[in-house]
Design brief:
Elements lengths: L1 H14 L2 H17 L2 H6 L5 E6 L7 H10 L9 H17 L4 E4 L5 E5 L15 E8 L2 E6 L3
Parallel strand pairs: 1-2, 1-3
Antiparallel strand pairs: 3-5, 4-5
């Protein structure tokens, strides 16, 4: 009986192990990181870059909670899951391109476009004085401010 209890407890603890859950998250991040491989090789090694997307970025947890509360009305249907994913994408992007500093928007000379679809018309999200330097595919693009 004691052997059964110990073995079932051991199996239970193994199922809760952190390395297993870390591996799952690590795989997701690795797949996400592959999207930006070419971009990372092109960007300056250090410095600041801008970030634009077809989804709002840089929302805090309290912003998302407030949007959840507001989206309960019939007139204001907001896809909270998409907002949470966009926020996660932005945080992961910051991690992937570190030590570079990432600012939402177009205040920097180099701006990365991270779009949810590869065939998006990026001109809706970035000013005309930004030139497309490279389209890496899968919604990832690099722009440069031609006035600087």
């Amino acid at each position: 009986m004691l052997a059964f209890v110990l073995s079932s407890s051991l199996l239970y603890l193994k199922s809760l192990s952190v390395p297993g859950s870390f591996k799952l998250n690590s795989d997701r991040i690795s797949l996400y990181e592959k999207r930006f491989k070419g971009l990372r090789e092109t960007l300056p090694a250090r410095g600041a870059i801008g970030y634009v997307s077809d989804m709002p970025v840089g929302l805090s947890s309290s912003d998302i909670r407030e949007l959840k509360r507001d989206s309960n009305s019939e007139n204001n249907r907001i896809d909270i899951k998409k907002l949470e994913k966009a926020n996660k994408d932005y945080v992961w992007f910051q991690y992937i391109v570190s030590p570079r500093v990432v600012y939402p928007g177009t205040s920097q000379k180099h701006v990365v476009g991270n779009f949810s679809t590869p065939d998006i018309d990026y001109r809706d999200y970035i000013a005309d004085h930004f030139a497309l330097v490279e389209d890496y595919g899968n919604g990832v693009m690099l722009f440069e401010d031609s006035t600087r």
